[in-house]
């Protein structure tokens, strides 16, 4: 990787030098190269083998607060020069934007640290196919109700990201991502259900075993059999960790700069305002070794730092790129490109404890549709899961809709479990909300 890293950094430096020679005082260049393989098996047969090798250089220049951008997959000096010139020419015709420009020097990461994010796999295509087949074979043998499979798959990808700008920043880092998944179909009488499980990690050697993935896929699939509809009502709702991370994903969108300066967020003007119960906190740590969302700097070279997002229920920060910060008259927070390893504080209860605390209500394990209005916070989505009575699962449910308002839902969180999903960049356990509307039969 070292040789490729040097080659890509040289290409970025070439583009910046060409921009400078053309009299451009503000330019930025992002260059990414990725490579990997995806394999799938189904019912013991190879279904798909796909190799990918992608990469392109993106060039942006700022001339008199006008932005021009161009890209090229050809990294020869001639192609880079043509792309820089194209970006400069485009800038002549774009509208002036007083907030356009590079991230201010004082926010740039001066000493990026190695977060051990790059772990290329040495497994052959045959090895990966064998891993997928092993997982599927185990799954098909565990329960006679598993009658079919949508296959098992292994993905193994690496990438190298380089970013440089005319403020003197030029850095790069490599990363990797590997996963194993299995999708199954169960049948009982005339009913059929489908579900899946997966494991993912930076290092192939840290994936959970094919046995674990198979067992989880079987468990999740057969538990859906016998699903019923329930009557329309109001009740407590418990979101599984996978669904809970999506719930907090709406928080991410609501406090991101673009939503705020466009005034399309239900959390406008909410800094230092209580939006969650006073026991609740969410922290961010971009520098977890091998972390799923770790990053030594953001996508515009900005410093990434540990911070509290929510402290005792109060919102501590927005998530701002350099552009959003200038537009809003605030400080950049190093979130160009997204969030970095969020951790929701839990109350110590496992799933069984949460179910007992809820007593009777809905446990949501699947959500469908995109019925969320980020301007008002109104929330309405299709759901499936389990009906809980006296703290234990009574039966699976489907074809229901849950509804509420995110502001109220956030304040009505009564507990967060310790059953954290380690596969997510937004780490949270199951979330119990005191009351939501449920539309059923």
UniProtKB/TrEMBL annotation:
Q: Which Pfam families match?
A: PmbA_TldD_1st, PmbA_TldD_2nd, PmbA_TldD_3rd
UniProt family annotation = Belongs to the peptidase U62 family.
Give a yes or no for keyword Nucleotide-binding in this entry. no
Q: Which organism is it from?
A: Psychromonas arctica
Q: Where does the Metalloprotease TldD/E N-terminal domain lie?
A: 27-91
Name the EC number(s).
3.4.24.-
Looking up SUPFAM superfamilies in the UniProt record yields: Putative modulator of DNA gyrase, PmbA/TldD (SSF111283)
What protein name applies here? Metalloprotease PmbA
- Indicate whether Nuclease appears among the record's keywords: no
């Amino acid at each position: 990787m070292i040789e490729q890293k040097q080659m890509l950094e040289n290409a970025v430096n070439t583009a910046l030098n060409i921009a400078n020679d053309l009299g451009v005082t503000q330019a930025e260049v992002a260059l990414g190269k990725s490579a990997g393989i995806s394999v799938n098996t189904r019912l013991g047969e190879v279904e798909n083998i796909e190799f990918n090798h992608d990469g392109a250089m993106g060039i942006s220049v700022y001339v008199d607060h006008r932005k021009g951008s161009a890209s090229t997959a050809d990294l020869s000096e001639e192609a880079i020069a043509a792309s820089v010139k194209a970006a400069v020419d485009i800038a002549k015709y774009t509208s002036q934007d007083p907030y356009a420009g590079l991230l201010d020097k004082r926010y740039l990461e001066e000493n990026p640290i190695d977060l051990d994010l790059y772990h290329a796999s040495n497994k052959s295509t045959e090895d990966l196919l064998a891993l997928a087949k092993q997982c599927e074979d185990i799954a098909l043998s565990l329960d006679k109700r598993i009658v079919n499979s949508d296959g098992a798959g292994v993905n193994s990808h690496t990438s190298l990201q380089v970013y440089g700008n005319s403020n003197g920043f030029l850095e790069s880092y490599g990363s990797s991502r590997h996963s194993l998944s299995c999708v199954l179909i169960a049948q009982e009488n005339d009913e059929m259900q489908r579900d899946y499980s997966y494991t993912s990690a930076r290092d192939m050697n840290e994936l959970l075993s094919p046995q674990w993935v198979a067992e989880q896929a079987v468990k999740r699939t057969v538990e859906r059999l016998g699903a019923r509809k329930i009557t329309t009502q109001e009740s407590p709702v418990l979101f599984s960790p996978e669904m809970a991370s999506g719930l907090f994903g709406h928080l991410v969108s609501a406090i991101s700069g673009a939503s705020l300066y466009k005034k399309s967020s239900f959390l406008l003007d909410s800094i230092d305002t209580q939006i969650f119960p006073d026991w609740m906190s969410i922290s961010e740590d971009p520098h977890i070794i091998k972390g799923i969302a770790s990053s030594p700097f953001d996508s515009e070279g900005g410093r990434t730092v540990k911070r509290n997002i929510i402290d005792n229920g109060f919102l501590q920060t927005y998530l701002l790129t350099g552009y959003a910060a200038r537009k809003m008259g605030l400080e950049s927070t190093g979130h160009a490109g997204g969030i970095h390893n969020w951790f929701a504080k839990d109350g110590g209860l496992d799933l069984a404890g949460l179910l007992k605390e809820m007593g009777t209500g809905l446990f949501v394990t699947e959500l469908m549709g995109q019925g969320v209005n980020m301007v008002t916070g109104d929330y309405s989505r299709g759901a499936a899961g389990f009906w809980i009575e006296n703290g234990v699962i009574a039966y699976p449910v489907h074809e229901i809709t849950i509804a509420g308002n995110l502001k109220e839902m956030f304040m009505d969180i009564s507990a967060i479990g310790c059953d954290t999903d380690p596969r997510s960049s937004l780490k949270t356990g199951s979330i119990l909300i005191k009351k939501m509307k449920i539309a059923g039969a």
